[in-house]
Amino acid sequence: VKPMTPRCTVPKAVPVGKTASLHCHENEGYPKSTYSWYRNSEPLSPDTKSNARFQNSSYTLNPTTGTLVFHAVHKGDTGRYSCIATNDAGFAKCEDQEMEV
C-alpha cells in the first residue's frame, strides 16, 4: 500500500544553540515507510559522519521513525523543510515548512 501524505511537524522559530525536533509520520503505507528529510529541496544525509558536506551538522536523522533532531541549531539550519515517506509501493511528500533560527 502506497504511503499517505505524511504529517510533518516543523518548529517555526528556534533560538540559536537550542534543540529542534522535526517529526514526519504516516501509518497507511504497507510495508512500513522509511522517511527522508530535505532542506530547501536538498536531501539531508542520514549519516552525517560519512558525508563531508554534513560533517559540521549537529543533527540526528532516524529514517525509521521520521524524526530529525538538531542538537544545537545554527543560522545555517534555517530553511524550508519537507519529508518524504517511501515504501515498495511508492512515496508521498508533505508540504515544505519554514524553520527559522
From TrEMBL:
Where does the record say this protein resides? Cell junction, Tight junction; Cell membrane
Principal subcellular localisation of the protein: other
List the SUPFAM superfamilies hit by this protein, alphabetically. Answer: Immunoglobulin
Q: Which InterPro entries match?
A: Ig-like_dom, Ig-like_dom_sf, Ig-like_fold, Ig_sub, Ig_sub2, JAM-C
Gene Ontology molecular-function annotations? cell-cell adhesion mediator activity; integrin binding; protein heterodimerization activity; protein homodimerization activity
Question: One matching Pfam family, short form?
Answer: Ig_3
Picking any one GO biological process from the record gives: cell migration
Question: Has the keyword Transmembrane been applied to this entry?
Answer: yes
Identify its membrane topology class. Single-pass type I membrane protein
Q: Which family does it belong to?
A: Belongs to the immunoglobulin superfamily.
Q: Under which name does UniProt file this protein?
A: JAM3 protein
Gene designation: Jam3_0
